[in-house]
């Protein structure tokens, strides 16, 4: 009897446990997102696109070059007596850079002055001698003596001119002992120190002076693309009624920041490199804050015209195996579909297309790499800022209801 009761108790406990498990299974099966339930649609950021007029651009790489650059060399020899500039600082045109010992050159000036005075002193005597022979011409003085007197006077005057030129040369050499800046610019490190001996027009420069405001940016483009670029710029300028000098050129610095000043095309090389097949395009930019330094690498965005179409941000697009532009959209059934664009043009941080899209189409901005076609999603209206980042608009606050009277 006791064994029968014990077996009954065990069976009762087992039945209660099975009933509890059955209830939990039903609850889990009925819970949202459970193993037996349907997975909710994934939210995706979308942009409702519409047709607009947008600039057409092209991006070229290039390097900065000084507007003016000069290797400073001495024009007279001697010992460097003083270095009057601070390396890496800005100087004005005419500022003293180097002072070469001038003692020998000052002595040469004094010697030239004495020679000039001696030459000038001989002129009055030669002139008086000629006048005396003129008076004696009819009283027995020979024609030869008269002509010799004329020659002596001419030689005396020539000696004065020669001495004056020698004095001028000596003075120039004395002045050249002061090596001055030929234009406004920034100095490099000096290659010589006080006490070093230099020679006139030596091979090695004393230092280099560079003018970097304004500054050149030299861009490189293939000869084939250059022809297309020129045609596009010409077409765009004709539509705007402007010339090539008004073509906007904007720079992106090495750290990705945008340069504030807009540049213009200065000149295009009239020859194609035989080694690279590229053409150099020189552009000019204001550089008042000296942010751009010679040798710095930059990317230039050139505006070549305007065109109407639909903008697809670069972050929302990719390329297929054929190189065609692709992007994913959410259709009317909230399902994902991929569209391919055979023709696209660059417009800043976006691609400009015209076929296969219409006003109001919802372009997927984020996460499209992990979303398959025909997947059901939940569109979240978003926007893209000027730098290409996705921004979700903040919903507008509704005004509180007016109190009832």
UniProtKB/TrEMBL annotation:
It is found in: Cell envelope. Residues 1-19 form the signal peptide. InterPro entries: MdtA-like_b-barrel, MdtA-like_BSH, MdtA-like_C, MdtA-like_HH, RND_pump_MFP. Residues 392-405 have a biased composition (Low complexity). Residues 311-369 form the Multidrug resistance protein MdtA-like C-terminal permuted SH3 domain. Residues 385-405 are annotated as: Disordered. Residues 110-177 form the Multidrug resistance protein MdtA-like alpha-helical hairpin domain. Residues 69-208 form the Multidrug resistance protein MdtA-like barrel-sandwich hybrid domain. Its main location: other. The keyword Acetylation does not apply. Residues 214-305 form the Multidrug resistance protein MdtA-like beta-barrel domain. GO terms for biological process: response to antibiotic. The keyword Signal applies. Keywords: Coiled coil, Signal. It comes from the Bacteria. Residues 109-136 form a coiled coil. GO terms for cellular component: plasma membrane. One of its GO terms (molecular function) is transmembrane transporter activity. Belongs to the membrane fusion protein (MFP) (TC 8.A.1) family. This is Efflux transporter periplasmic adaptor subunit.
